[in-house]
Amino acid sequence: MRTHLILGAGLIGTALADTLVARGDTVRVASRSGTRLPGAHSTIADAADAPAITELARDADTIFVCTNPPYPDWADAWPPVFAAASAAARDTGARLVLMGNLYAHGRVSGSMTTQDPPRPVESKGRIRQAGWESLKAAHDRGDIRAAEVRASDYFGPGAGPTAHLGRRFFAPLLGGKTAWCVGDPTQPHAWSYIPDIATTLVAVADATDDHFGRPWLVPSHACSQQEIAREVSALAGATGRVRGVPPIALRGLGLVSPQMREVERVSYQFNSPFTVDARDSERDLGVRATPWASAIATTVAAYAAEAARGSRRSEGR
């Protein structure tokens, strides 16, 4: 039985904890809210507090960094989290697995691979790249053992209103209305299923040390939001449709909302093909994406059930 420390109790941290607990591992989860997760030992801690994280990581095999500060806070929030995680890994000997994204890849002309040089085009990509480079440098010095798992935009049951393929996408479609999306809904985009993200994180943690010192991509599916809307209609018998928010409107929202300003800055990811090639993860880690038909059907069923519960509550008032 192994012991792990997970920093962050959001959707990915929760899915990861569930996966590790299910196989009998000891799981500690640290978050600012102290969110309790079934089978895990939960505690209140700031991921940027190096002494606290180091103490929680004592005797742990792995530290997973699954925190996700709000976009407008990234410049201030991420550097101390990277530093604290690195210090904890150095002082305890625990291996470090960083949950990452694709922002450092910037604008791409083909499917992304882990061999691509970083080309971040906006601040969030540069922040994430700088964080990974600091951990990679510590790894190369022999101070720590670190790896990064990069996912595209996630989807699955529970993905909330901030997810591109979350509640704000599925609820209107299931209600026969228009789902407004960022970018061009006809462009193929990589979507990472939340259980597959957790599976890839675990696979990296279980791998030998020669699998560290590098990033890994989560096996993901590529399809357009328009295609997904058609599948939702077929699965649920709904008549909703999807349309892209006009770029000028998106920029206007950014003038009054710091969060939307940051969303607009990464909207390039949805205006042209944005896909991944994760064959090295499949080959070397033995992970596979959940079949699309199963993942989307499970997701649609979850949002349909959520809509039905909301309807019953409304009727009961």
From TrEMBL:
<feature type="domain" description="NAD-dependent epimerase/dehydratase">
    <location>
        <begin position="5"/>
        <end position="209"/>
    </location>
</feature>
<dbReference type="InterPro" id="IPR036291">
    <property type="entry name" value="NAD(P)-bd_dom_sf"/>
</dbReference>
<dbReference type="InterPro" id="IPR001509">
    <property type="entry name" value="Epimerase_deHydtase"/>
</dbReference>
<dbReference type="Pfam" id="PF01370">
    <property type="entry name" value="Epimerase"/>
</dbReference>
<protein>
    <recommendedName>
        <fullName>NAD-dependent epimerase/dehydratase domain-containing protein</fullName>
    </recommendedName>
</protein>
